[in-house]
């Protein structure tokens, strides 16, 4: 299911739809499950990439400190303001260049950007909350091309990315009872290639 992702620098704000994943190694999941629980579906990376998925672009802060900390986000802000101003000029002048395409491309790029000071405790001894949460996030941002390629399903105005069991590499479950229920369900539904089912406590041995 596509959910909302936000990105904002000062007066520039972007909202878009995306499906989010984590690329955390299976034997390093303890920190992740504290926020998301012990049930997970591990998709094949080939499927994520072929669906337009990319790693999130992490930024340190969104405010420049001492001229260096947060300088990348400061540079990005300058580029964004230049792009937005030129978008308005192109739109008003009726240029042959597709100004709406420029706007869409900008929105798709920003939908992959994320500040790393939004989760967890301070990590550098300063008084600022400057946490890096090692979730190694990937996102599939919704494009019009997903619809053109019939990769979307829409139910009650909510968009879903089409998947099959063959797109799944691993299913992680909390315990043996749920593992048995998942396997029985897949067998009864006629699934030929059942993904690997792993109990969460077994991940530490991988």
Quick take:
With 206 residues, the protein is of the alpha+beta class. The chain has helices at residues 30-36, 45-50, 71-93, 99-110, 144-148, 176-188; strands spanning 3-9, 12-22, 40-43, 54-55, 57-59, 113-115, 137-141, 152-155, 158-161, 168-173, 196-199.
Description:
- The chain is of the alpha+beta class.
- It is 32% helix and 26% strand.
- The chain has six helices and eleven strands.
- The strands form four sheets. The protein has a four-stranded antiparallel β-sheet. Strands 3-10-11 form a three-stranded mixed β-sheet.
- The chain is flat.
- It starts with a strand and ends in a 7-residue tail after the last strand.
- The model has no long low-confidence stretch (mean pLDDT 81).
Keywords:
206 residues; alpha+beta; four-stranded antiparallel β-sheet; three-stranded mixed β-sheet; 32% helix; flat
Outline the secondary-structure elements.
Blueprint: E1 3-9, E2 12-22, H1 30-36, E3 40-43, H2 45-50, E4 54-55, E5 57-59, H3 71-93, H4 99-110, E6 113-115, E7 137-141, H5 144-148, E8 152-155, E9 158-161, E10 168-173, H6 176-188, E11 196-199
Parallel strand pairs: 5-6, 10-11
Antiparallel strand pairs: 1-2, 2-7, 3-10, 4-7, 8-9
Helix pairs in contact: 3-4
